[in-house]
Amino acid sequence: MISPEKIMFTLALGCCGLATAGYLLSLLVKKVALAKASTWILAAGFLFLTVNLIVAAVNSGGWANFGSRHFLSVYAWAISGIYLGLQFKTKTRILGAFIAPFILLFLITAAGQGSEKSLVPTPWQGWFMTFHLVLAITGEAIFVLVSCAGAMFIIQNSLLKHKKLGSMGRLLPSLGDLDRINHLGLLWGFPLLTLGMICGAVYAASFWNHLWTADPKVIWAFAVWVIYGFLLHQRLAINWKGLRMAVLSCAVFVLFLLSALLIRFCFSTVHRFI
Amino acid sequence: MIVLVGLNHKTASLSVREKLFAGCEGKTNLLGELSAIDGVLEILHLSTCNRVELVAAAEDAPQVLAALRSFLVRSGNLTEREAAACLYGYRDEEAIRHLFRVASSLDSLVMGEAQILGQVKEAFRQALAGNFTGIALNRLMHRAFRTAKRVRTETGIAANPVSVSFAAVELAKKIFGTLAGKKVLVIGAGEMAELTLTHLIGNGAEEITVANRTVLQASALAEKYHGNAVGLANLTEALSDADIVISSTGAPEYIVTAEMVRQCLRKRKNRLLFLIDIAVPRDIDPAADDISNVYLYNIDNLQDIVDENIKNRHREALKAEQIVEEEVAQYSKWLKELKVVPTIVSLRNKAESIVRMEMIKAQGWMAKFENGDREKVEALVNGIVNKILHAPVVVMKEESSEFNSQDIVAAVRQLFRLDD
């Protein structure tokens, strides 16, 4: 018999696939109504994924015992949750065309992972570890959103500068809304990542008796933190706005994505969960 | 039968339209006079700055068409030459199609404008209030509104602005998202600048500053929109505060230089800046467009957007025409079927009266029936009658929607002796 957890995951995956197709189609036919419908489908997928994670938490006796599948599901859940939350603040439905493929990618990768293999080795499990994971994942998910909004900003800016608004320009959100996402994303994402890293460091101090571990993933996360902190500082103190922030957010994200993949496949790390 | 007589901006000059408009508006009981014309069953009068039209449900279309045409000639004091050149008359499907096209704004001066539908609705409301419409026109007008709604929602005919000032507002929305709380600086006081300003205010822009060579001239416009007036000497300062700048002075040189924009951008903390230069020669240095977070549009750029949008509307109009055709076909079918309705009603009445009479006759022998048996017999008889009548009713409707219903109606009336 198929478990309720599996059913919920499959439904979430299906909804996300459908929403991604809808979003991409809306870009193709340049109709925002399709993107609106896709947002509702994504919202349904988010609900299924929420139920899936709750059931998984009950089954495995807590968040800390999550397997690799759940780890990736939490990533997808956080990105879609933040994106859907943003829809209350800004009219940026079409942003989904950039976000949904990421969510789908996480879920497809999750589907290929086992749920049995525990994410965190048993001796490491605990509340601090849970906080560390959830906060770090949420912070990183917000940065995914920020960079997608940045990519859209670059396209929209180019259309407006070249006086070629056209149907694509009309479909994409306004520059003001996209810049606001950048502002909100940095403002919320940075503190969450900071807290996540503090939790990790405190946990490492209690477990290994030192705050800092020369682990590639830790160095990578620290670099992410420093650069996003720098962007936030420039935004708030030096008033960097608009195109410059959009370009930097995208560039930084691509750089981190590539380095994360490099670490995953070329280095040995204590954060090798997937 | 539906007939339509009138003139519009395509067929008549402004002076002719004015004469007819004044002639019709001058009549206190226009619809009353029109409904008194022989053969007019229902009537409606549509009058806008671009058209005067009469729509009627009539018994004899050619006769009513001629009568309505003479009425318009008399009312507008038109010469026979003017009438021949300007007035058009349509009947049946042509009249229905014309009305649907008018309501959908396919026949408007600015295709896709929304105002015409409101004017058609008002014309219908007035006719309805005076009891000058009946089943045919009521249905026709509701179909016209439905057609207009479909055209607006299913095509992009009204999607994009086709005036320079609205195009500027659309761009402002694409830059800022919402215009609520946005500050507007108007340099100079041209008519187009004021029109654009009005649209921006209508969309939420709030703080207005007017800059001019003489503060006195600026004050007049500023007061009108509850804004501030400044001289050109304070332009850099005003520029630092503004989000949207509309410039339309007659100055031969640049009023706003790229350097001024660069400097003010620092002061305004790199917030996005939208510059609209509708002056010829230009007021704003084109180099300002190269600055990041600054978006400069001149009159040619805005006109290009408008031209593109007009082309789009014409493309969308083809889809709209298809919708109009579908709706015309549906209404025409209904109207034709309407002709057989009195015969169907007579047929049913006759059948019902026969059943009633026979049930009264049978009361004697049905008296011994037990509870509910009488109702069962009555239901059985009604069922049989309905089944028998079903085929002739359906055939009459089908025939009427495809051919002239006169022959089949005459045959049914004779067969069932409906006129006895």
Q: What are the SSEs and their pairings?
A:
The complex is a heterodimer of chains A (274) and B (420).
Chain A: H1 4-29, H2 32-59, H3 68-89, H4 96-111, H5 127-161, H6 166-171, H7 175-208, H8 216-236, H9 243-266
Chain B: E1 2-8, H1 14-25, H2 30-35, E2 40-47, E3 51-58, H3 61-75, H4 80-86, E4 88-91, H5 92-103, H6 115-129, H7 135-154, H8 164-176, E5 184-187, H9 191-202, E6 208-212, H10 215-224, E7 228-231, H11 235-241, E8 244-247, H12 258-267, E9 273-277, E10 294-298, H13 299-361, H14 363-366, H15 373-402, H16 406-415
Helix pairs in contact in B: 1-3, 5-7, 5-13, 6-7, 7-13, 8-9, 8-13, 11-12, 13-15, 15-16
Structure characterization notes:
The complex is a heterodimer of chains A (274) and B (420). With 274 residues, chain A is mainly α. Chain A contains 9 helices and no strands. The mean pLDDT of chain A is 84. By secondary structure, chain B is of the alpha/beta class. Chain B folds into 3 domains: 2-159, Glutamyl-tRNA reductase, N-terminal domain (Beta Polymerase, domain 2); 164-305, 3-Layer(aba) Sandwich (Rossmann fold), CATH 3.40.50.720; 336-415, no CATH class. Chain B has 16 helices and 10 strands. Chain B has a 6-stranded parallel sheet with strand order 7-6-5-8-9-10, sandwiched between helices. In chain B, a hairpin with a 3-residue loop joins strand 2 (40-47) and strand 3. In chain B, helix 11 packs across helix 12 (258-267). The mean pLDDT of chain B is 90. The chains are: A mainly alpha (274), B alpha/beta (420). The interface between A and B is medium-sized, with 23 and 23 residues.
Mean pLDDT across all amino acids of chain B: 90
The secondary-structure element order of chain B is: EHHEEHHEHHHHEHEHEHEHEEHHHH
Order of helices and strands of chain A: HHHHHHHHH
- Largest interchain contact: A-B, 23 and 23 residues
- Mean residue pLDDT of chain A: 84
CA radius of gyration of chain B:
32 Å
- What's the helix count of chain A? 9
Instruction: Give the count of helical stretches of chain B.
Output: 16
Query: Beta-sheet strand percentage of chain A?
Result: under 5%
Quickly name the level 1 CATH class of the largest domain in chain B: Alpha Beta
